[in-house]
Design brief:
Layout: H1 2-52, E1 58-61, H2 81-84, E2 96-104, E3 122-130, E4 140-145, E5 152-154
Antiparallel strand pairs: 1-2, 2-3, 3-4, 4-5
Length: about 160
């Protein structure tokens, strides 16, 4: 009887703990990649602005996130924005897609539900879309801007 109760308790704990562990693992993987990429993109945007006087916009690259990861090579093709920014992606596979929006002047507020108010001068923001659970119905999204480098997130772990 005691053995059956012990097994039942262990089963319940396993049912709770294992999904929680994998959820935290997905969040950590996404935050690690996003933090490194946001840092790289911010530095490259600032360098580009020093050289050209403007920030450079970039459509989502890769075009869509992939839970299995994908090579970032398509983002680094000559003539593409990430190539022009001289972005260096250290990972062999990336799980998220990154889009850079630029602007000049006030008037842009809360892109994709994130907190952002554009300043009077030139600005950019980056949105990362990640599919960490292999379900395209809900994705994790992360946001960072030239105005505020604080990492904002929505649906983390999805």
């Amino acid at each position: 009887m005691e053995l059956m109760i012990t097994v039942a308790v262990l089963g319940i704990l396993a049912k709770i703990a294992i999904p929680a562990f994998f959820g935290q693992s997905k969040k950590a993987k996404a935050k690690s990649e996003v933090g490194a990429m946001f840092g790289e993109l911010a530095v490259r945007e600032e360098q580009y602005k020093l050289e050209k006087g403007v920030y450079l916009a970039a459509a989502a690259c890769p075009a869509a996130p992939a839970a299995a990861g994908q090579s970032p090579a398509s983002c680094l093709v000559s003539g593409q924005p990430f190539y022009n920014l001289r972005v260096r992606i250290q990972e062999a596979k990336i799980f998220c897609s990154y889009a850079i929006t630029i602007g000049s002047g006030t008037g842009t507020n809360n892109p994709s539900g994130f907190t952002f108010t554009s300043p009077s001068g030139k600005w950019f923001y980056v949105i990362a879309t990640c599919d960490m659970d292999n379900s395209s119905t809900t994705n994790s999204t992360y946001f960072m801007s030239s105005v505020d480098a604080t990492l904002q997130k929505q649906n983390e772990g999805y």
